[in-house]
Amino acid sequence: MDFTTTPHFRLQELTLEKGLDERVNDAFMPFAVWWENLILAEIPFFGQGIPIVLIILVFGALFFTVYFSFVNVKYFPTAIQVVRGKYDDLERAKQPEKVNVLQVEGDVKDTIKDESHIGEVNHFQALATAVSGTVGLGNIALVAVAISIGGPGVTFWMILAGLIGMSTKFVECTLGVAYRDIDKDGTVFGGPMYYLSKGMKERGLGKLGKLLAAVFAILCVGASFGGGNAFQSNQAAAQIIEQFGLSGDATGSIIGLIFAICAGIVIIGGIKRIAKVTEKVVPFMAILYVGAALFIIFSKIELVDDVFKLILTEAFTPKATIAGGFVGVFIQGFRRAAFSNEAGAGSAAIAHSAVNTAFPASEGLVGLLEPFIDTVLICTITAVVIILFNMDGAFVYGNVVNGQAIMNDGTLLGGVNITSMAFESSINGSSYVLMGAVCLFAFSTILSWSYYGLQAWKYLFGRGRWTDLTYKIIFLLFTVLGAAITMDAVIKFSDAMILALVFPNMIGLLFLYPKVKSEFDKYLILIRPNKSKV
């Protein structure tokens, strides 16, 4: 049933005057839809359209996984040891006496001897900052959307996509450190902008590298304002308003202003302060959300084996009425994972570039933990809770309207509301825990994306004090606006910009992966001198 055609809905549509934000939204929507369709352009595959960007991500991840001898599995324990600091003493002992810094067009402007000036944060802080940028509302809301559309089988392909995405993260984070710039005072400038421009120049493709770097930077700035900021504050404000039954035209603005003030206090201090906050917020929000979800799972432990049977069987023989059958479920799973952990988008490499190490591959190993935490762990736990909730048939998989599941009572639920109901049905009052997790996820994502966008902004407009301040003011304005107004078109446009990052970034990765191989061999010799190269 199309609820938008009911007399009640039509009456409301005709009698309620649209506000300024809605009129702007309607005017901008055609362009936003065009942009989204461009980035998500599809090619036919067994009667089902597959986005080209998804094909690039999947085949790129598979290539890196095989080329680096399944680094995502083989060196997973080593990655954990790097984060714990097991090899820090070895790294410090082998650091070169001089480290080249502030390279512009390949010319070294200065050098430094102080080893503390080869980075700004430690391995754990870099990981926490990057994880805070990827672990967000998508882990709660969009997983629910994917499950409601494709059924339990989506989870299997989501996990697989997360596992191979670990290899892509390894490549881009290694390159981020290998080609970063470090200023005289130790400030780090890194990310795809730098490994695209400098790395491609090394391979005799300097003009192409400059173009790709500029395109990436422009897209990254746009993504930081929208998907990484306005969308986060908008969804967090909506959840707070709904949970407490708040009303009033100024409520969203007030919530957005609070978010902006808190974010401003943190981001004004740069990556070091962001890292200090995220290293505390990320573990806390993970414990809060994962702890509550695991409590629900263990309270229904007798059904968990049935859940995983459904996940495995419906991954290949789905019962959900989804277009394309098996192929449709496959696409939903890979799409959800790719959009969630951002492996291939290159954004996280910006945070990892700030790490204090002289060995790029060490941070590449740390980076591969990101998709595991984001997708294999948190997204999967969310999926299991939702499947457990629907074991009694609260809604029919595949029976959706505009991404919202039609519940048995006829109501429409989508995204975070499905997850919220799943929590509340198992633990009374747990929806408040979920609301707290939503706010923390949103806040931490805003912090990380403020840094990503600032680095891209500086690449485009220079590294002056006023350049820095201008970006931060605009960014915080979007935090308030995102919570205060309805701008679906802007959010749609900005989310597509995050996916658009894949195109310039993956081109660079496919040209520069031999550099990663060289750096990885050096690091393995350092930590395992008696072992063979990868």
TrEMBL record:
UniProt subcellular location: Cell membrane
InterPro entries: Na/Ala_symport
Keyword Transmembrane included in the entry's annotation: yes
Main location: membrane
Residues passing through the membrane, by range: 50-70, 140-160, 208-230, 250-269, 281-301, 307-331, 372-391, 432-452, 473-491, 497-513
Keyword annotations: Cell membrane, Membrane, Symport, Transmembrane, Transmembrane helix, Transport
Membrane topology label: Multi-pass membrane protein
Coiled-coil features, chain-numbered ranges: none
Protein family membership: Belongs to the alanine or glycine:cation symporter (AGCS) (TC 2.A.25) family.
Protein's name in the database: Alanine:cation symporter family protein
The organism of origin for this protein: Flagellimonas spongiicola
